[in-house]
Design goal:
Helicase, Ruva Protein, domain 3; six-stranded antiparallel beta barrel; FAD/NAD(P)-binding domain; 11 helices; about 400 residues; alpha+beta; five-stranded parallel beta sheet
């Protein structure tokens, strides 16, 4: 009699687990509460899907602030190149962009979702959609099956691949955490990772939508400082964009501890203060007969100029040639350290990734099997792992899904 494997959730980790388990000869059923598979993949990367990262797999671990070392075995067992090769085998060509990010050549996230579904189906997995798993049944610390809205399904192995609690409209509503807790697992408290930040200052509303490239942003708390170089955006509520998302996890940790967090933006990181002073003096000579408010067009984006003028406390109508050395130095410091106070993160439901989850101490890192319940496996974001932007989170989902599927499928 074939080894029966049930995969709960048809996302990135679930589809990979299902296809891999079926290739081992297991009888695989994927139970998904949505009407279609891979709903979160379809909207990821603004509809383009950043599948993985092309840098050497040996460089991946530091890009997981949440329990990266747990992933060592899984990442080396099923690498980024293994993933790219698998997708190519099923007709999906990929390309590498800035930051070694890997995308489908088509720039269509739906194609990624459909390719992964095709992989699972071709391998032999069957799907049951619009069906909600209500609980996992266990006897003598061994999996027996799952109770669903459509009845009971017996299984020798169950893989929980239900995702996190971010983007609940895609079906990631935290069901896996409930199942894990009911079965005696520890769930590390959840908080948002890769999430936009709210600021106390309201001037951000004046520049909402403005994108800044090649800037350095640093979050600061007491004497601690974490910085990133790249692109960010202003929003009506605060700040977002790639480097902000990467910094947001640490900001969330500090905020949860009740500490004061600030964000410092260096608008001109390529210039030292003395170099910026020379540049500013050059611009001021050029515009010496104009008012201060009309002298910064060569230096800053148009929408940001009124904000900088107000924060500099230099009268906007002051003639440029009348600006003092002290005022000029204060302006330079402002351009090098534009500071915002972080009030909070956006809620977990708005985060790209959930930090926290099923404790890695209770999961075998090689097989993804529970150390508490025989035949129970975990894969993907439901585990207490999270990475920075750049394709690392999806790779973690694929690698843990592959490990869980392989070992569960062997029976």
């Amino acid at each position: 009699m074939a080894n029966r494997v049930i995969v709960v959730g048809a996302g990135a980790a679930g589809l990979m687990a299902a296809g891999t388990a079926a290739l081992q000869g297991a009888e695989v059923l994927v139970i998904e509460k949505n009407a279609i598979p891979a709903k979160k993949i379809r909207i990821s990367g603004k509809g383009r899907c950043n599948i993985t990262n092309a840098r050497p797999i040996a460089e991946f671990i530091p890009n997981y602030p949440g329990n990266g070392k747990f992933l060592y075995s899984a990442l080396n067992r099923f690498t980024n190149q293994d993933l790219i090769n698998l997708l190519a085998e099923y007709g999906l060509e990929t390309k590498v962009e800035r930051g070694q990010r890997v995308f489908p050549v088509s720039d269509d996230a739906n194609q990624v979702a459909d390719t992964l579904t095709s992989f699972a189906r071709t391998a032999g997995a069957e799907f049951k959609f619009n069906t909600e798993v209500q609980r996992i049944t266990v006897s003598n610390q061994k999996v027996q099956g799952v109770v669903t809205s459509a009845g009971f399904y017996a299984a020798d192995r169950v893989i929980i691949a239900t995702g996190g609690s971010s983007y609940p409209r895609t079906g990631s509503t935290g069901d896996g955490y409930t199942f894990a807790k009911e079965l005696g697992h520890t769930v590390v408290p959840l908080f948002p990772a890769l999430v936009a930040l709210r600021t106390q200052e309201t001037w951000v509303q004046q520049v909402s939508g403005l994108s800044l490239k090649n800037v350095t942003a640093a979050i600061c708390c007491d004497s601690e400082r974490h910085s990133e170089f790249g692109e960010m955006q202003f929003a009506h509520f605060g700040v977002t964009g790639p480097i902000i998302l990467t910094l947001s996890r640490q900001a969330a940790v500090w905020l949860r501890e009740g500490r004061k967090v600030t964000l410092s933006i260096d608008l001109k990181p390529a210039l030292s203060e003395s170099e910026l002073d020379k540049r500013l003096q050059s611009d001021f000579r050029k515009y010496q007969r104009k008012q201060f408010k009309n002298s910064l067009n060569d230096l800053l984006p148009k929408s940001l100029i009124p904000v900088i003028i107000e924060l500099s406390q230099i009268p906007p109508d002051k003639q440029v040639h009348q600006i003092t050395r002290t005022e000029r130095f204060a302006l330079i410091r402002l351009l090098k350290q534009l500071t915002l106070t972080i009030a909070n993160t956006l809620p977990l439901s708005s985060a790209i990734v959930t930090a926290g989850g099923v404790s890695t101490a209770e999961i075998n890192p090689k097989t993804m099997e529970s150390k508490l319940i025989k035949g129970l496996y975990f894969a993907g974001e439901v585990i207490d792992i999270d990475g920075v932007t750049g394709g690392f989170n999806l790779q973690a989902a694929f690698s843990t899904g592959n490990a869980a599927g392989f070992h569960a499928g062997q029976g």
